[in-house]
What does this fold into?
Amino acid sequence: MSERRALRRRALRPISVAVTTWGFAGLATGLPDARVLALVLAAGAGLAALAFLGRRHAVLAVATIAVACAAASVSSVAFVDAVREQVDALRVEGGRQLVLELTVTGRIDGTPDGGAWFDAVATEVRAGSVQLSGDIPARIGVDAEGRRALAEAAMGSEVEVVGRALPAEPGERAVLVVRAEEVARAAPPGGVWGWLEGLRSRLVASTDGLPQPGAGLVPGLAVGDTSSLDAATETAMTVSSLSHLTAVSGANCVIVVGAAFALLALCRAPRGARIVGALLVLAGFVALVTPEPSVVRAAAMASVALLALALGRPAVGIAVLSLATTVLLIVDPWLSRSVGFALSAAATAALLVLARPLAAGLERWMPRALALAIAVPASAQLVCGPLIVLIDPHVPLLGIVANLLADPAAAPATIAGALAAIAPFPWLQDGLTALAWIPASWIAAVAHTTAGISAQNIPWPDSLLGAGLLGLVGAAVFVAVVRPRRLPRTAALAAAASAVSLGLMLGQSAVRTVAGPLTVPAPWQVVMCDVGQGDATLWRSGAAIALVDTGPDPAALTGCLEKFGVEHLDLVVLTHFDLDHVGGAAAVLGRTDLVLHGPTDEGADQRLLERFAATGASLTQTTAGMTGTLGATRWQALHPPPRAEPGNDASVALDIAGPGFPRTEMLGDLGEDAQESLLRRADVTPVQVVKVAHHGSADQDADLYRRLHAAIGLIGVGADNRYGHPTASLLSILESTGTTVGRTDRDGALAVWMDEQGRLSLWRENGPAVDSVRSPTSSSPR
It folds into this structure.
């Protein structure tokens, strides 16, 4: 026992080195110039070494190593900063045209507009007569024509492009971010890279003719190629906590390595030969799936797990994990800002530290094999959950169950698919692909079934407070299951806390999915969600539902959709790309068929649209005059005009009308000048409902509201907002037109509908009973 404790104490030393390296790497990648910090740390490491030589103490030795590793990581950043300074000397951000000689170092990922982005290393950059050579990290974007020119390119290809540089995001690894205007040369990869690309292409081709979605999952499970995976299945895999199976994570690496280890064991190879053989298989697998940074780190973590499990020493595994983490952070300090890297390290640590105690605790109630099967995904979920809610503010209640059902099929699907990729004969490849399709189809069915249960995805705060709270809940669950004998009272309290937490989550789920829709008026046709200082408005015609803007917060929008019983959206309109109108978009990714949007800037706007497209939505940029239908209603875009500059005054403004539907005008965030312009160009006639522009700001055109003469005005506004919305001047305009005002800061969610006699009703979540509102005569649709 004392030896075990000593081993655990020694394991803390490499952990402290890894944590120190991680912290300074994260700090350095956010600095404009890390060279000064690198010098300071190098001096600190030297002083610590001198102190250790004078007084040999373990703490001084650990401090010396930790500061030296931190200095090495920061020096890697400083080296890139020096290269960045040389690139800046070319004045690349001044719009100067660049010619780049590149080697592709990652997958070429398509974008919704038909273009693509990829990582590369620039070996030569020319700007006029100025030339810079070296190994310069770059990220390159191409348009649809450029994507066609790159049709035969892949990792290892030599490419020449002509383009202009874009400003790099803070903390970005790439020194150069270039939007290419021309692909001058794009050769297919040669040598080993060309052969491996051929293997991957043949595997994808061999799935043709097999039923979806299993066919699209086979290349994803085997080599991480999701190009043939339909968007609905990709979304379902994410929602059900199964996306790690298709992202070439540590799970894929462990499956392949475990199979090799088991095969060598059957051949009675000695332990050393099994470990070496398994590591060689892992290296080949990494090459096959392309050694991108995410794949390399997954392989490193899988190697750690393999060594620890082979040695039967979890404490040693933690030390090796810390060493691997430190080395990776020295080589690539930008991993310190990667949530994927943090999740990979956390999941590996959970497997090494928590899985065995959890399995021992679960054995009180179930067979040992089942306990271990549950303990592996449960330990990963307990540790990774607090990190995941920072990205997606939901807790998947059925994630462990989905993994428990899917994991047994993951191994045969991955192994058969990987063997199919390297099979030398077409008939053998097709047979192995067909075998892989069977478990892959089961995994797809589990993902779709789990994702279809809306009660399983519990909203959770996405702040650091939310992450901390989920961490405490996870710790309570762990202690309650393990029940340490030395802490009986703590175990009892943890069990009580776990029971209360589970009860609250189940109760919240029941309220959201069953009781929630019963508290709102069933005949609603227009709803303004209470999402704080922002806009999110629904309209419904029959079974078809549209959402205009998403508000600033995914959790708030999710709560509104569940309250009104909305699971799928036929249409999402993003009037413009301010955060208070698109910040909640994560709540509807994968839940819509069509996205209409206003003008976009480069960068974040386009990336958001790419996320929608990746989950199966069609994209259409909207300009004045466009029309469409939703159920029995017809919508027409009144704004923006063609070639409008992005911003508030380029908001999409919609007129919505239909039989038995309250005619509605939605004005986005248009200011007074844009409203005047709309009034000049469009035939504005009275409506029943107006979604007031810009949260009720003072920047309004009174003539527009007088022409609209709306019976009801809906204002999306946050309580005690610092802008003073809605302003007295706007409220005065609405009062002068006899418009009944509903505002979310006081009234909560708002709902409007028209009955068969044409009577108009307004429901306030926090207000009195339903108000009957006078309904002006509405003209026909424009």
In short: The longest strand covers residues 130-142. The radius of gyration is 29 Å. The chain has a mean pLDDT of 79. The chain has six domains: 2-87, 89-189, 193-240+398-451, 249-330, 470-516, 523-773.
